[in-house]
Design goal:
4 helices, elongated
Length: 126
């Protein structure tokens, strides 16, 4: 593989890795929002126990189980992201890598590793 192709595949791989991180944040959003919804249940019970039934009713009516986007809970947002963007991104990256780089992942990083280890060995020898 020539250096320009290695560089281009490295940039494509980096974009995929950034997307992986974004997906992780989306899953964190999903889990945190779900946890907050269960915590609302505890808050509702505590408000009722403290004699604040009207406030408990409002919290329950307006927040408990609420959609985060029109018609969607967070699991649906995650599923749509996975199906409409993430999986397509992975498939395209893999196809380009297979075609141009014989399927080799991290070709750019492998070159960096070899070069850094070579420099380190040379510095140690001197």
């Amino acid at each position: 593989m020539d250096d320009k192709t290695i560089d281009a595949l490295g940039k494509l791989r980096k974009a995929l890795e950034t997307t992986e991180r974004a997906r992780g944040h989306l899953y964190s959003f999903h889990q945190l929002t779900g946890t907050a919804d269960f915590e609302l249940g505890d808050a509702i019970a505590a408000l009722r126990e403290a004699g604040h039934a009207d406030h408990a009713q409002r919290v329950q009516r307006e927040l408990l189980g609420r959609n985060v986007l029109p018609g969607r809970w967070t699991f649906q947002v995650v599923e749509e992201y996975d199906d409409m963007y993430y999986e397509v991104f992975r498939e395209v990256e893999r196809a380009v890598r297979d075609d141009l780089g014989d399927g080799e992942r991290h070709a750019f990083e492998k070159g960096l590793k070899r070069e850094r280890q070579r420099r380190s060995a040379e510095a140690y020898d001197n």
